[in-house]
Structure formats: C-alpha cells, structure tokens
C-alpha cells in the first residue's frame, strides 16, 4: 500500500468519525429539546396519587380482615368490642382515601385570578425555596389547607432536616419534618420519608400546637422540638433546655425576617 493510499484511508476514517460525532450531538440535542419540563403541579399530583394508592391498599387489607372478624364474631369467637375496633379502623382508612381524593381534586382545579393575586400580596417579600419545586408546592398546599403560614413550615423544615427527605436523627426523628414515630402515628403518617406524608403530618402538628398555645409561634416551636407536655410543664413557657431554646431562637430569627432566602 502506497503512502498516499494510507493518508487517504486516514482521511476517510476521520471524515466518517466526524459524521458519527455530529450525529450523536444532533441526537442529544433533539432528546434535550424533547425532554419534558417538570411541572410542579404534576409532581404534587403524582405524590398524592402514590399516597392515595397506599391508603386504598390499606382499605382493601382492612376490608378483608373485617370480613374475617365478622365471621369470627358470628361464630362467637371474638367480642363485639374487637369487631367494633376493626370497624373504626376501616372507617378511618376510608376517610383517608376520601380526604386524599379531595386533595387531588383541589390540585386539579385552576386557582382563580383573585386567589393568585391574594396569595402574592400575602406572601409579600417571603421569597423562599427548598430547591425542590415539588416540596415547595407541597408546603404551600398543606399550609393553605391547614391554615399554617407556609414560610413557617419552610423555616421549621430548614432547621429540622435541611430539606433532606431521608434524614434520621439520633433520637429517631424521621423525614423532612423530623417526626418522631409516635407523632407520625398520631397523624396517620405511614411512611415518614415520603415528602407528602411528612409535610402533611408536620403541618397538622404545627397547626395543633399553634391552636393549643393561642397562636404563640415560639411556644408552638418549643412544643414541636420538646413536646407540648414540656411546654405545659414549665407554665406555657419555652422549656429551659439549651437545645430547645436555641432551636426556637434560630427558627424565629429566620421567620421574623420574612426576606428572600437563598
């Protein structure tokens, strides 16, 4: 083979490689253009749908157990108290399915213009983001549903977990809102690492604490950290625990500013 033939071969190979590279770049560009943009509303609906499926599965399980309990009761093998306990569990599970169905329907409804404007005015300069649109919108969703300032939920979550869904504390608190197992169970949270369940449970807990302490944000936060019993033990004041006092101080400092948070 002559030298010129070798050079010609290299040129052809280079040209072919060039076409391949151009083709790969073009394909990547097309894929990038075709990739769907994440819609926060769709992500919320997806999370709520997952939660709905979980609740429905629980209902199916309880229905089967109820049928068995009914037969055992008819045969005189269990008491009416046991049967009625199962009835209540089934009713509670069905209520959860009904509630989550309403929440999904609410997400599907477009917000009226006046509501959007009202929310913007109410938010003022409270520009904040966890860095995750799905979590941001869940905070707003449940904050609005339960009457808790979304910015307060945000500030609490920042201090509790730094917006880490899989966070677990040495004391056993779990998820974004760092719910203890007992608190999670109280608010029907079956998976504390699920963003929707954690935010919903934590928001309901904050709502109850705010109501319990007449809207006192400092006492509600102290109760969230140390338990409402500790706050009442010390005459409805922030308990004299360094951790709790520092916790309340840090969240109030962030919450009081109500300025854009980076």
Helix segment tally: 11
* Radius of gyration, whole Å: 27 Å
Average pLDDT reading: 79
Largest sheet: none
| Series of H and E elements | HHHHHHHHHHH
Total tally of structural domains: 2
**Alpha-carbon distance between the two ends:** 66 Å
Beta content: under 5%
Per DSSP E runs of 2 or more residues, the count of β-strands stands at 0
The CATH topology name of the largest domain reads Lysozyme
Poorly predicted runs: 1-22, 24-35, 116-125
CATH class of the largest domain: Mainly Alpha
Structure classification: mainly alpha
Instruction: Using the 3D structure, state the CATH architecture of the largest domain.
Output: Orthogonal Bundle
Shape: globular
Helix content: over 70%
Report on the structure:
The chain has 262 residues and is mainly alpha-helical. It has two domains: 72 residues; 149 residues, Lysozyme (Orthogonal Bundle). It is 72% helix and 0% strand. It has eleven helices and no strands. The longest helix has 35 residues. The chain is globular and about 65 Å long. The N terminus is likely disordered.
């Amino acid at each position: 083979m002559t030298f010129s033939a070798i050079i010609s071969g290299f040129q052809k190979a280079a040209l072919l490689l060039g076409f391949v590279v151009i083709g790969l770049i073009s394909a990547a560009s097309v894929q990038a253009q075709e990739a769907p943009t994440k819609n926060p509303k769709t992500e919320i609906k997806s999370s709520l749908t997952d939660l709905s499926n979980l609740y429905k599965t629980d209902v199916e399980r309880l229905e089967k157990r109820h049928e068995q309990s009914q037969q055992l009761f008819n045969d005189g093998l269990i008491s009416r108290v046991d049967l009625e306990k199962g009835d209540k569990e089934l009713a509670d599970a069905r209520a959860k399915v009904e509630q989550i169905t309403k929440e999904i329907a609410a997400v599907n409804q477009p917000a009226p213009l006046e509501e959007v404007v009202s929310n913007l005015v109410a938010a003022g300069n409270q520009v904040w983001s966890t860095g995750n649109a799905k979590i941001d919108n869940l905070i707003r969703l449940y904050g609005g549903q339960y009457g808790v300032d979304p910015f307060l939920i945000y500030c609490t979550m920042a201090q509790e977990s730094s917006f880490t869904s899989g966070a677990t504390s040495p004391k056993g608190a779990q998820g974004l809102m760092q719910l203890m197992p007992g608190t999670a169970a109280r608010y029907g949270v079956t998976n504390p690492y699920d963003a929707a369940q954690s935010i919903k449970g934590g928001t309901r807990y904050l709502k109850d604490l705010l109501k319990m302490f007449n809207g006192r944000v400092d006492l509600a936060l102290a109760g969230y950290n140390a338990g409402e019993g500790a706050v009442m033990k010390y005459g409805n004041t922030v308990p004299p625990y360094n951790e709790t006092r520092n916790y309340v101080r840090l969240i109030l400092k962030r919450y009081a500013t109500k300025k854009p948070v980076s």
